[in-house]
Amino acid sequence: MWPRLLASRILSVFTDHKETHKIFVSTWNVGGVAPANDLDLEDLLDTCNTPCDIYVLGFQEVVPLRTANVLGLDNKKVCNKWNSLIKKALNRKTSGSQAAAKPSPQLQEFRRLISKQMVGIFISVWVRGDLHPYVRNANVSSVGCGIMGYLGNKGSVSVRFRLHETSFCFVCSHLASGGRVGDEKLRNSNVTDILSRTSFPRGPTPRMPGKIIDHARVILLGDLNYRISLSDVETRSLVGENEWDLLMVNDQLKKELMDDQALEGWHEGAINFAPTYKYYPNSESYYGTHPGKKGEKKRAPAWCDRILWYGEGLKQHLYTRSESMLSDHRPVKAIFSCEINVLQTVGGHRSFFFSERFEKKITSSSLEISIQH
């Protein structure tokens, strides 16, 4: 294994330092509604006022959760459309006269690092162009927790990568639904399944974590579906009075975070925005506000759409919702800053020794040596 040993010896002479980067994360259950060609994502991304270095957008129900979609092939057309809209919004500020100027970090073109769909769950990760060469070991892992405990109508799609010397993992999830007493246990079970069944290749060098929580920076986003443990009447009354703190006392996810069982070690920022579910389509009114059909479920308002992080190393600066009326959910977004470890560049050698090109070379070299012996 002398190529790896040689690389480690050479890299041992490099010094390291820390850089701070900003990460945008959003989650949005779009209710099976395909986006219009002219859908503007600026309200969600807010790139002009809060530019970030990495953008992670998670979606649920990008296709209707019909049997044909759950059992059939993924519909790549709708995900391609979302990627096109994301690219247009992120790179809008690099067009025109600004593009002619010398690029600054805020004017760098964004490149899609990776995107992945599993039935209705879709995650798309974008990085600033000048950071892209320093990203490696990008992988995805999907876990189905839906019908029969394995189909992809519920579950997660996780993306992980290493930026410079710091590993990241983003978990886009859609957990079990239901507002009955005890349904939160199904969601807890989904979380346990996702954390235990998600696995990534370890990689040749440097060794990468195989499990979600072993990464240095971990963020969970999605329609987690946790509800408020109050009656429909009490919930709607408190929502009408903007009593978020009183509602939070009875929020199922907050209770799970405090109990330190299924979600031990996870954190969530303070919620100072209205519940994100369930709305009438193209309306500011919650479902059940108007008289419905006989026997129709009212579905009290709830903060189903959440963003959590695990362990240390992430600082949250923003946690709020956006106001798009595309579906019965409102999007939720967060901005984090984090420090990452960076090896000091000496010429161009550092980027080669920590590139995937070098990893392929040492893998093939190791194979040749083993064959010769």
Automatic annotation (TrEMBL):
Care to name a GO molecular-function term for this sequence?
A: inositol-polyphosphate 5-phosphatase activity
Signal peptide annotation: none
Reading the lineage from the top rank, the first entry is: Eukaryota
Keyword terms, alphabetized: Hydrolase
Q: What is the lineage of its organism?
A: Eukaryota, Viridiplantae, Streptophyta, Embryophyta, Tracheophyta
Q: Which GO terms describe its biological process?
A: phosphatidylinositol dephosphorylation
Q: Which PANTHER family match?
A: TYPE IV INOSITOL POLYPHOSPHATE 5-PHOSPHATASE 9
What family does the Swiss-Prot or TrEMBL record give for this protein? Answer: Belongs to the inositol polyphosphate 5-phosphatase family.
The organism encoding this protein is Heracleum sosnowskyi
Q: Which Gene3D superfamilies match?
A: Endonuclease/exonuclease/phosphatase (3.60.10.10)
The residue ranges of the Inositol polyphosphate-related phosphatase domain are 19-344
Its transmembrane ranges are: none
Name the UniProt record assigns to this protein: Type IV inositol polyphosphate 5-phosphatase 9
The answer on whether this UniProt entry bears the keyword Nucleus reads no
Matching entries from Pfam families are given as: Exo_endo_phos2
